Predict the structure.
Amino acid sequence: MSITATQVNDLRQRTGISMMQCKKALEEAQGNEEKAIEILRQKGAAKAVEKADRVTKQGVVITKVQGSKATIVKLLCETDFVAKNEEFQAIAKNAVDVALKKGAEAAKESQEQPLKDLFSKLGENMAIEVKVMEGEGIADYIHLNNKLGVLVRLKNKDDDKARDVAMQIAAMNPVVINPEDVDDADVAKEKEIWKVQLKNEGKPEQIWNKIMTGKEKKYREESALMKQSFVKNGEQTVEQYLEGNMVIEFMRVAI
C-alpha cells in the first residue's frame, strides 16, 4: 500500500527514528502505526521507541524574522528540566536558522541526528515542528515563558501595528481572520447546542431562529481576529485599529 508523508512524519515524531526507517516499517506494517513500532523494536530500534508514548508537554517556541521571511519552531520534550537544557535549546535555534535559509522540511531533517544524539544522552522523547511564512509586513511575538509564539503578516508593512496584532493573537487566540472564514460545520454544531439551550430555557420555538442569528453573529465575530476587541484599547476592534490595513495570515504556536 502507499504510505503518505504525513504517516511517516507522525511515526518519526513519536519515535525519533529516521524518516527512511519509519517509512520501511510502515510499509511492512501496511500502514498500521502500532505494528510499525513493534517492527522497529524487533529490528533493534527499541531504545528510541520504548519511550514513544510518553507525552511531550514541555519545550520551547522560537521565532525569527529576517527580511521578508520568518519562521516559528516548536521543540517538544517531556520535562521542563530538558526544556531549559542548552543543547536542547541550541537545536531549536539551529532549526530556525536552517528554516530561514532552506525551508521548513530542510530544517526538520537537519535536526534529526542532533535530536537522536540528545535523546541518547538525556533519555527523553522529543519532537520538532517548523513553519515558515514569507512576504512583506511580517512581525513576530514570543510570550515571556517561551511557550507561545506568533507570526503575522499584514497587507501593508507597518512594524508597530503588526507587532501589536501579534500580541493580540497571542492573548486572544483567534481561530480565523474574518467572520466569514469560520467553518460552517462548526457553526452548525453550535446551533444544535443553542437549540437545546433555548428549549431548556423555555424560549418559544418561533423565536429560535432570530435568537440563533444573533448568537451566530457573536460566535463568528469572537472567533475572528479582525472583529475582536483590541487588547490595548477595548473601545475599538482590531479592524479599526489597523485603519484599512489587513491581516493576510497568522500562525499561533503554543505548548
Q: What stands out?
A: The mean pLDDT is 90. Residues 58-134 form a domain with the Tetrahydropterin Synthase; Chain A fold (CATH 3.30.479.20). The first helix runs from residue 5 to 15.
